[in-house]
């Protein structure tokens, strides 16, 4: 079983590179200890070079990064391009405790990017902001990973979701089918996220990680009876105890409908509670990544 790291511990680590390394190292130790791997799950294992090993198995990219010789024991046949798409709208500022959905999103993206880089994949970052889409084109090298970490550390959420007029940024570059990882809270005013995902799905293999906080599931905001929409400013006053049963019923319906809509479009969907470790997301990512192998 993989080593589970408490998200509260990860969020307290200011360096995303350190947090990502800790997460992936713990995840890989768990895989190495397990005798049963998930269907389609693959990762290139490394070990130190020993005299007598076939020099053709040396991983020169790892040597360039670490100045040490490593043998790649399980060769991934095809490197791919991975785009990490982050919802930067104001609703991602929603908090439960000391950290927000955006905090969780940046640590999730950093861990997945670190894992992708180890696999030899090109990685890019796209942040959906009210004014447009910040883009860091996909590239494969360690310095690029550092730039991606830096941009994730600078992320701030605000305003509404990006206007579709800016989506053309997503289609620049290669025509090769890629893996798009969309990290979002699925908050939308008029179906704009579904429209975006439908468009992406024509060009890419798509993973959606839907972030929700524990207090959203439980309708448990102690001491509050007045709620304000983070993006529109609209407010409502409710009695949580009286509204909780109907709220949770409606939430269950919404979650089921969201999942069905995406799966019907062959988009991989996973809801992630922000108080759970990242292991499942890493496993999902590797499984979906393998679909793009030739």
Short description:
With 294 residues, this protein is of the alpha/beta class. It has helices at residues 7-11, 16-33, 60-66, 101-118, 142-153, 192-201, 214-218, 240-264, 279-289; strands spanning 46-48, 70-72, 81-87, 95-96, 99-100, 122-129, 132-139, 178-184, 204-212, 226-228, 235-237, 268-273. The chain has a 6-stranded mixed β-sheet, sandwiched between helices.
Tags for this model:
294 residues; alpha/beta; six-stranded mixed sheet; two-stranded antiparallel ribbon; globular
Helix content class: 25-40%
Assembly state: single chain
Low-pLDDT parts are 34-41
Class based on secondary structure composition and strand pairing: alpha/beta
Strand order of the largest sheet: 7-6-3-8-9-12
Strand content: 15-25%
**Shape descriptor:** globular
Question: How would you spell out the order of helices and strands?
Answer: HHEHEEEEHEEHEHEHEEHEH
For the termini, the CA-CA separation is: 30 Å
- Biggest β-sheet strands, sense, barrel: 6 strands, mixed
Q: Count of helical segments? A: 9
Q: How many β-strand stretches?
A: 12
Round the mean pLDDT to the nearest integer and report it: 84
Radius of gyration: 20 Å
């Amino acid at each position: 079983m993989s080593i589970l790291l408490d998200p509260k511990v990860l969020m307290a680590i200011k360096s995303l590179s350190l947090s990502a390394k800790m997460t992936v190292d713990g995840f890989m130790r768990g895989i190495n200890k397990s005798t049963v791997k998930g269907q389609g799950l693959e990762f290139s294992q490394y070990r130190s070079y020993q005299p007598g090993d076939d020099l053709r198995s040396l991983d020169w990219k790892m040597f360039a990064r670490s100045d040490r010789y490593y043998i790649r024991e399980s060769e991934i046949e095809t490197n791919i391009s991975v785009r990490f798409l982050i919802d930067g709208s104001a609703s991602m500022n929603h908090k439960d405790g000391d950290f927000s959905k955006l905090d969780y999103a940046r640590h999730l993206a950093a861990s997945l990017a670190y894992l992708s880089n180890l696999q030899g994949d090109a990685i890019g970052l796209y942040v959906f902001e009210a004014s447009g889409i910040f883009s860091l084109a996909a590239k494969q090298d360690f310095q690029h990973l550092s730039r991606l970490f830096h941009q994730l550390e600078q992320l701030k959420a605000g305003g509404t979701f990006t206007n579709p007029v800016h989506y053309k940024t997503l289609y620049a570059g290669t025509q090769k089918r890629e893996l798009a990882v969309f990290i979002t809270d699925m908050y939308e005013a008029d179906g704009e996220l579904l429209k975006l995902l439908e468009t992406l799905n024509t060009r890419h293999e798509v993973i959606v990680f839907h972030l929700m906080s524990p207090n959203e599931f439980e309708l448990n905001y102690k001491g509050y009876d007045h709620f304000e929409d983070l993006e529109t400013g609209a407010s409502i006053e409710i009695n949580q105890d009286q509204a909780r049963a109907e709220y949770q019923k409606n939430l269950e319906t919404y979650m089921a409908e969201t999942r069905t809509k995406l799966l019907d479009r062959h988009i991989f969907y996973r809801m992630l509670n922000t108080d759970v470790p990242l292991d499942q997301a890493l496993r999902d990512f590797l499984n979906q990544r393998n679909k793009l192998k030739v």
